[in-house]
Amino acid sequence: MSETRHNWTKQEILDIYNKPFMELLYEAATVHRKHHDPNVVQVSTLLSVKTGGCSEDCGYCPQAARYHTNIEGNDLMSVQQVKAQALRAKEGGSSRVCMGAAWRNVKDGEEFDQVLEMVRTINKLDMEVCCTLGMLTENQAKRLAEAGLYAYNHNLDSSEEYYKEVISTRGYQDRLDTIDNVRKTNVTVCSGGIIGMGETLEDRAGMLVALSTLNPQPESTPINALVAVEGTPLEDQKPISIWEMVRMVATTRIIMPETQVRLSAGRTQMTREGQAMCFFAGANSIFAGDKLLTTPNPDVNEDMEMFAVLGLEPQKPFTKKVQPQTVEAKDSQFESLGEKPKWTRPDHKIERNEAAKAKALK
Ligand code: SF4
Question: Cofactor note from UniProt (predicted)?
Answer without folding.
Answer: Binds 1 [2Fe-2S] cluster. The cluster is coordinated with 3 cysteines and 1 arginine.
